[in-house]
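> run fold Alpha-mannosidase
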Amino acid sequence: MHDNRPMLLKHIDRILTERLYPAATRTVRQVETAYWALTDAVGPVAGVPGAGEPVPFAQARQAEYTPCDLPLRWGPPWGTTWFRLRVRVPEALRERHLELDLDLGWADHSPGFQCEGLVLTPAGRALKAVNPRNRWVPVTSDLLDADGTLELYLEAASNPLLLDIHPFLPTDDGARATQGHEPIYTFTTADLVQVHDQVRALAADVDVLLGLARTLPEDSPRGWTVLLGTSQALDQLDLADVPGSAERVRALLAPLLAVPAAPDSIRLGAVGHAHIDSAWLWPVRETRRKVVRTMANVLRLLEDGAPMVFALPAAQHLAWLQQDAPEVFARVKEQVAAGRIVPVGGSWVEPDAVLPSGESLARQLTEGTAFFREELGAQCHEIWLPDSFGYSGSLPQIAHLAGYDNFLTQKISWNQVDVFPHHTLWWEGIDGTRIFTHFPPADTYGAEVSAEQLRHAEVNFKDKGRASTELFLYGYGDGGGGPTREMVERVERVADLAGMPRTRHTTPQEFFTQARQEYPDAPVWVGELYLEKHRGTLTTQAATKRANRRAEAALREAETWRTTAWARGLLADDAYPAAHLHELWRTTLLCQFHDILPGSSIAWAYEDALAELGRVIESCQALTAVAQHALVSGVPASCPREHVGVGPTSGGAGVRSSSDGAVPSPEGTVPPSDGVGVRSTLDGAVPPTDGTVPMSDGVASPSSADAPGPQPTGQAHRVVFNTAPVSRRVAGVTVPPLGGALLPAGGRDEARACHASREGAGAQLGNGLVETRLDATGAVTSLVVAGRDVVPPGARFGVLQLANDFPNEWDAWDLDPFYRSSLRDLEGQLRDVHVDAAGARAEVDVAFGRSRARLTWSLTPGSEQLDLRVRVFWQESEKVLKLALPVDVHAHDAAYGSQYGHLRRPTHENTSWDAHRFEVCAHKWLHVGEAGHGVGVANSGTYGWDLTRHPRPGGGTWTLVRATLLRAPRFPDPQADRGEHELCFAITGGETVSTVRDAAYRLDLPTQELALPAGTQVGPRLAAALAPLVRVEGAVLESLHLADPEPGQESAVLVRVYEPDGARRRVTLYAPELAGAVGADLHGRPSASLGVQVEPTSTEGVWSFELHPFGVATIRLRRRTGGEARPSERRRAGAPERWGAGGEV
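> ok
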């Protein structure tokens, strides 16, 4: 035969697109349309029609609508226009299959990325959403009034298309201050149509068969059978009467669709899905509406009888749905109970899995799991992060301790160079915990169930021959929308079809159960899942990253001191305040979503994030101050809710962005409602100040924590609190971890004073422990720390470097390797050298392009580290700013601080995998070491780093450490990172990581100080008040907070610790004021399987347990009752004794 395959394919395709699809519906009549364009002062122009913020349906229902003809121009960017749709259905058609066909003016692609709408009944019931690939609205007899009139309301959102066919173009529409105000859409179609079911079904049959013919190999007998059979059957279609001949043609095609799949074909578990980004190319405000629209679509399918199973991640989205559309939420809850909607993931949002702290990742799971359990009665069974930009090696243990033993992602398929070798595997974390893992081989979380995607899933599966089961996620995502009826129908047609993988609807849990049984000895991947792409997200939107770091620290401070005060009877259970802290955590967790924290969203998202994180910080500072005041004064504290209000979402103004002066400084003072002043100091990184804030109530002032009895004094004293899990020296006094100390007035560290001097054009700083020399440009040419000069011969340490930063795509996301070719040193000028009682410092000014920077090198008395503060006024575009720190260390690998531990990465480029890991994440610190010596760098919020090896004169190598400070991409936020920034670093010496880790905690968790009035008396009572509630030896205490109480029970104290060095240790826990220590899971529930075995020692209030390398443990304790209190202990039960002004403290 001489059949031409391309001609046959084109023949089928044209009949499908130009005859079958148009003939599937018949227009009955046009719909009468009226509109109400919301108007308010949004954007640069007030009173723009359609630019108003969303309003509830009840308000829209009462609005005055203006009749209009179509086409109608409508909708400025981010606006809302309500349409009232009315049509009288002819009586003869009222029992037929009828629908509305709507076109709001969208392009025929990118559902979820442009205008979309939600259709509601006059009673406010969400009927369905519409988007470019889902235009239909059901018309059923129950929706008609007595005379057959249909009335519906359409909330239309004019969201701009920012990621168009030509992507990554800078846009002004991502910020409210610069967005446009002219209409950007044209409403063209609102028709009542009759559906020809046989034609629709025929089109669906041909769609599947055409896809099969296209994707099978050209020499496939099955492919030719399908191609010829489909073409010949369509030749029997009456093109002049498609509805009349459709059934006959379907009968001719039926044998082609009835050939079963081969018995050994791959089995796909199809799961409906709608990955909705909590913010991205739209603000959080719009995400809330996307959730409602998507779930309305899902409910439409399920309530119409579709056999789909839908996976529902992100508890935050359900919380919004519960608040914004309770009617929809109630219907979702019914489908969850029926097993048709399955909550997955267990997290509050789908977070970035690299940048958040370990405690933040833990809270993602505890908060999310609690919401799913309490509000939906559901338990998730897998970690579900299909779109995060790499995955920390700490995640397997965190997931396991939260009760999750399965993990799903597909993002590693985005690797630029190296192809991941497995799709089903065991992923082993830094501590050895393994979690069963699956990467859906279709390489997408939003498939359309096309033949190409199905075939790719089968052919691409790396574990063929060893496993035959894989997961297949379908439904429009990112901007939402979810599965369509066409997708579900394709799943039905390919369920058992020769040439296609066998496909059936399933739940994620069913899939993982089957996959584990089939492939229990799957290969093991050890360590992080590094994504060879999107490396720039470690740096972009640096102000938000620093605000997140500070919010994490502020939450830790608030929980630590509120728990301590509660355990000592100074806070009632209802004053803890658990609900408020949950709210603060959930706000922070939302800001850690994988397109917010990484820096890849529009400007509007960062206006919101900085405002929300700023409120979290302020609220926590107020909560901390109240608790610390209660501890010092002994006066029971309440927690008025009006301290600072924070919601899980917001728009509007708040904390200023970095371009306006950055996030609240750690040195800032927040006056809480009781008048206590709190001053935070950045230990070591900034020369301390002597400012104090007096307490307003004249509470007695302590002097020496070691004093045997009351000691009056005429000088002002300060009480200092230390939230860090390591001790620190303040003004000559050692402050214990999670405890406090008294600072005598005028107290200074007794260590040798600092010195500083000019040396020609350069300078020299020192304190007897650290000595450094700077040249005329302000670069460090010699740094003696831990007894050795760490600067390589001839190198310059602490130099800013600038490079072009114009990646091939994904501007805010990607840092491509060729930036290195344009790197150049920026020459500075040594400006000032100064020494005083606070320490020695040298200031360096650097000017470049339209930007400028000031570097301040500083030493404090008794400090064993060199501190660096970098202030940058950044106005570059498409550039990257690096800080070069060359160290004279021959290192084969380096240690990078991570969640609950650290990981090591090679410094060489032996393999492609090594070479393309050229930009990596470090949390609070990194350490480069050789036998007997090493150098560590701690930071205040810098996550992107690169290390390279260089030959050393005389033999060996030295290591170049570079911090990525700032980027300046133009998409999606054309002003990303522009403005003022402040970054702090501490350089330490030492062979092991412990020194730099301790320095990082001190940098990350500044002390708080309370100034006490002069003339007060102090005594041993204050020493007890400032003693740590909990002390740990052999591990790092990472979190101290209260568990949510069970009904009728008192709250319990949760202590979370981790082993930091990769060693097996026996840990000792000291908590004499607490009792009943037991091992618990991550949620704080006692657990024999997930918790450690806690054993009491011979000393009351002291327990021990074993931790494996990098192991995490949660210990649950309760407050001692009055009967358990020892006579020697301070009062722990009952009303506290009031300590009056002038009395003994």
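The chain has six domains: 5-24+196-259, 270-533, 538-665, 678-751+1005-1015, 755-1004, 1030-1145.
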